[in-house]
UniProtKB/TrEMBL annotation:
UniProt similarity note: Belongs to the cytochrome c oxidase subunit 2 family.
Record's bilayer topology term: Multi-pass membrane protein
Protein name, per record: cytochrome-c oxidase
Highest taxon in the source lineage: Bacteria
Record key words, sorted: Copper, Electron transport, Heme, Iron, Membrane, Metal-binding, Respiratory chain, Signal, Translocase, Transmembrane, Transmembrane helix, Transport
MF term (GO), any: heme binding
GO terms for cellular component: membrane
Amino acid sequence: MKIAPACVLFLSGCAGTQSALDADGPSALALENLIILFVAVCGIVFVLVMGVMAWALVRSTGVPGRPRPQTERSMGRAVAGAVVATFVVIIFLTASSFYATPGLDRGKADPPTILVRGQQWWWQFTYLDPDPARTFQTANELHIPVGTDVRLRLEASDVIHSFWVPNLTGKQDLVPGRENTLTLHASKAGAYRGQCAEFCGLQHSHMALLVIAEEPDDHARWLDAQRGAAVLPADSEAAAGKLVFMSKPCAACHTIRGTEASGTTGPDLTHVGSRSMIAAGLLDNTRGSVAAWIADPQTLKPGNNMPLVPLSSEELRQLSAYMKALR
């Protein structure tokens, strides 16, 4: 009776928002098939080895005290056969792995291109366009159209990171001073969680991202909205929060397009209120979470680059209202 719950718990890892066995893209499907192939081949090898061991334990040894002259020759042939079979299996699995790897960057001619920059500990996404005026940045939340190849250019600003969205593709490293590429393709709409898969410091486990796959029309509307400047505060509290933002060090580190804030150290906050999470997946994007993050970011995520900015309770309420109004 206790085996069934254990099996259910084990199989729960085969599906969900961050599972390599729940593929929704061609690259992820190729890796899923590779995993199944490895498990199947290793399972067959395990069964054969256990069978040979069982046969060796129960087989007849003939008359006690009388050696069997063919035993040594049979053992030699069995060992030689096992060595050859092991070599063939290793070569087959290695070739299968190399064959699946090129699928991570399918590389069509002119797909939409997004520059992905990993930093301790958040993700910066720059949506590139031949017209510089149409290029914009977001953070930690990547939007792509369904059914379209999207080329990612991967860079790192500080240490080695690794971009991994298991449901859509395999992982690819981001190395300082080097540019790698990766192709994303979502077969259906949905939200896919990703993670930095290379240990990059104290808050490595809090460096998540979200890939939002949208129907092409919805994605086009999202792009148009993101290219626009920040909306003007609609109420007095948010308007007061804007004044607080501009008078504090916030404006020196962050950009809010359409205002005088043009810092590049931290994430672009032009439309931060429209994102579903903040601090690279650490917190849901609610007004309370925003206020808590602004009030004491080092307690929530020790070691990150956001300093503690002294604020009164009234200023904190106003600033959190302004951040949520930026949609």
